[in-house]
Write a structure and sequence with these properties.
Layout lengths: L8 H10 L7 H22 L8 E5 L5 E3 H14 L5 E6 L6 E2 L9 E9 L10 E9 L10 H4 L6 E9 L3 E6 L4 E7 L4 E6 L10 E3 L10 H11 L10 E2 L5 H11 L2 E4 L12 H14 L3 E3 L19 E4 L1 H13 L8
Parallel strand pairs: 3-5, 11-12, 11-13
Antiparallel strand pairs: 1-2, 3-4, 5-6, 6-7, 7-8, 8-9, 9-10, 13-15, 14-15
Bound molecules: 2,5-anhydro-1,6-di-O-phosphono-D-glucitol (AHG) and manganese (II) ion (2 copies).
The site of one manganese (II) ion has 6 residues, from β5.
């Protein structure tokens, strides 16, 4: 029996903390709470086809999009799993316009969490992979007081941990504290996440690109030329790139992390700042991909160095294998495509 079979997520996190004598064990505890929320959401996702959970709530979220019931379920589970642990001083979710206050007496924790409770929600009804993304910071406001908006609006470089859970053919929890990226697969028999992807590294080169090509007519010239270049077989590569686009960022980036690839949600003529949210999607995925040896830029700048201005700010993103990101960056620069709003 392979040795890693019993490397559970809580044990892995604890062993990681032991390497840092100054660690208090708090990060381990809060990551375990996120894992508990993930198991609950995973169960509900698996039941989605059976229960009355399908369909729209009829409400719209802060971005004016229709919200499915499972989004709200995941949002509420995250809050309920995390707001009484004493680890956080404030939270923020893609599904809520303002910061989420922690009930008093529990709101004096050292950490801040931002999350996208369910990413790829347009895929729910089709039984296609979806996920949860989270990003953790240390508070900047004084300890012992309730957390603030400023605690939430820190640049991605300040993240102390980030991760995602993909609800796919199996449920996988991937996290980093900046030193290595680790993946755990949920064993439905044990109800436990077991180490399945040790020290994930993204390959420097790749042959997969992922973006919504239906938006072609809105793209700027640099992106058009870059994608054309990927589709052409050149002397060096021999064959063109393969296109793979699921429409759930978390699943697209997860695949690219394992196989190598570049994921793009660009700025274009219709959406000059792109679609994806800096705080809930781009920063955590950038932290993970960089920790695995890749790159993440918004065009002309590293995603994690953007100074956030608002909770639901959108930014363009080009993320994945280092050489592919270097290449797209060259094209964007050459054709003056860079988004100057960031
Ligand atoms: P969410 O379901 O959290 O709103 O996020 C959807 C995002 C992202 O996951 C995905 O990659 C992208 O939207 C898909 O957008 P298009 O349908 O425009 O391609
Ligand atoms: Mn999302
Ligand atoms: Mn979402």
């Amino acid at each position: 029996m392979p040795k890693q079979r019993f490397m559970t997520l809580p044990r892995h996190i604890l062993e990681g903390e032991k390497k840092h004598p100054e660690a208090t064990g708090e990060l381990s505890a809060l990551l375990s709470q996120i894992a508990l929320a993930a198991k609950t959401i995973s169960l509900e996702v698996n039941k989605a086809g059976l229960a009355d959970i399908l369909g729209f709530t009829g409400e719209t979220n802060t971005h004016g999009e229709q919200v499915k019931k499972l989004d709200m379920f995941a949002h509420e589970i995250m809050i309920r799993a995390l707001d009484h642990g004493g680890h956080f001083c404030v939270m923020a979710s893609e599904e809520e316009e303002d910061i989420i206050h922690i009930p008093s007496h529990h709101d004096i924790g050292k950490y801040v969490i931002l999350f996208d409770p369910l990413d790829g929600s347009s895929n729910i009804d089709a039984n296609v992979s979806i996920g949860t993304i989270f990003s953790i910071y240390k508070r900047i406001s004084p300890e012992g007081t309730p957390g603030t908006l400023e605690d939430c609006l820190q640049p991605g470089t300040e993240q102390v941990a980030a991760g995602y859970i993909v609800y796919g053919s199996s449920t996988i929890f991937v996290y980093t504290t900046g030193e290595g990226v680790y993946g755990f697969t949920l064993d439905p028999a044990f109800g436990e996440f077991l180490l399945s992807h040790d020290d994930i590294k993204i390959s420097k080169t790749c042959s997969i690109y992922s973006l919504n090509e239906g938006n072609y007519k809105y793209w700027n010239n640099g992106l058009k030329k870059y994608i054309k270049y990927l589709q052409d077989a050149d002397d060096q590569r021999g064959k063109p790139y393969t296109a793979r686009y699921i429409g759930s960022m978390v699943a697209d980036v997860h695949r690219n992390l394992l196989y190598g690839g570049i994921y793009i949600y660009p700025a274009d003529k219709r959406s000059p700042t792109g679609k994806l949210r800096l705080m809930y999607e781009c920063n955590p995925m950038a932290f993970i991909v960089e920790a695995a040896g890749g790159r993440a830029i918004c065009g002309h700048r590293r995603i994690m160095e953007i100074e956030p201005e608002s909770l639901h700010q959108r930014v363009p993103i080009y993320i994945g294998s280092e050489e592919a990101v270097n290449e797209v960056e060259k094209y964007l620069k050459e054709y003056g495509d860079v988004d100057l709003t960031n």
